[in-house]
Every structure is written in C-alpha cells, then in structure tokens.
Specification:
Layout lengths: L4 H20 L10 H8 L4 H8 L3 H13 L4 H10 L14 H16 L1 H9 L6 H15 L13
Helix pairs in contact: 3-4, 6-8
C-alpha cells in the first residue's frame, strides 16, 4: 500500500524535531553523576529533603541516584524525581541519522540485493555492470520508498 502524503509530512516533521536534538549534541547527555544528583546539588537540596518530597527514605534517594547512573532507573521514578526537583522529564529516542536517510539506505540495500543476481551473472560472464543496471537499482529503491512498510517485511532484509 503506497504511503500517503500525510505520512510523509509527519515523517519530515519528526525528522526536523529529531535533527534539532541531534544538533544540540552533548547538551542533553546525562551528566556523569546523573541528572537527579546534579540538579539536587545545584539547588543546594540535601538528599533528606528530596526524600521527604518523594515520601521515601534518604537511603532510597541514594539508591535512586545510583540507579540513574548505572541505567537501571525506571522512567516513572525519574519522572517523579524530576517533578520533586521542580522539573519535568524529557525523554527521546534519537536516531543517529534522519529517518529519510535510514529509509533510503534500506531501500537501496534491498534493491541492490534484488538486482544482485544480474550483477553476479554479469561478473561470471566477465562483463562490467552497466549504468542501466545501476539505474534499475535506483528505480527499484525509489519504488520501495513509495511503501516504506515493505522495507521491513521483505525477505531481502537484515
């Protein structure tokens, strides 16, 4: 089923939002000691006061801060701590490159595999692949991009 223009627009808009995060680079990276401890200390707030705000023990705050640093904290606990510190949790999964670039790379990989048997036969016959074959590979990739869901369900994937 071909992709609708609204889906393309939504992907472009999401790509723009994600690019803004990618460009910010290290601004959103977790501080070495974790966000909770860093913000708490910057506010001059003792663990006992944060514990009181969260209705837990001071030891629980110590464990919470350690879990954030080692990556075992839950999003719910992080969100609660953020609120208790007067903030909010901002959460994102940011791809290394644009969604469109990911789709284009995937489409070209599949198209190259689809046209690969022709390339292989040409090599066996000691012939160089022609620009027509390269063009055909690009055309197949473009066709695949018209229905991105196919990129993830085709048997050529990996």
């Amino acid at each position: 089923m071909p992709e609708r223009p609204i889906q393309q627009l939504a992907r472009r808009q999401l790509d723009q939002r994600l690019e803004a995060i990618r460009v910010s680079g290290g601004l959103l990276e977790r501080p070495r000691g974790g966000w909770i401890a860093t913000l708490r200390r910057a506010l001059g707030m003792p663990q006992s006061h944060l514990a009181s705000r969260l209705h837990v023990s001071r030891q629980a705050i110590s464990q919470l801060e350690k879990r954030e640093v080692d990556g075992s904290i839950t999003l719910k606990a992080l969100e609660q701590a953020a609120q208790a510190l007067g903030g909010r949790l901002v959460y994102a999964v940011v791809p290394e490159r644009s969604l469109q670039a990911t789709l284009e790379q995937r489409a070209f990989q599949i198209a190259a595999r689809m046209t690969g048997s022709v390339r292989h036969t040409m090599k066996l016959e000691d012939q160089e692949p022609t620009s027509d074959l390269d063009q055909r590979t690009r055309e197949v990739a473009e066709d695949l991009l018209g229905s991105p869901a196919r990129l993830w369900t085709m048997p050529y994937g990996g």
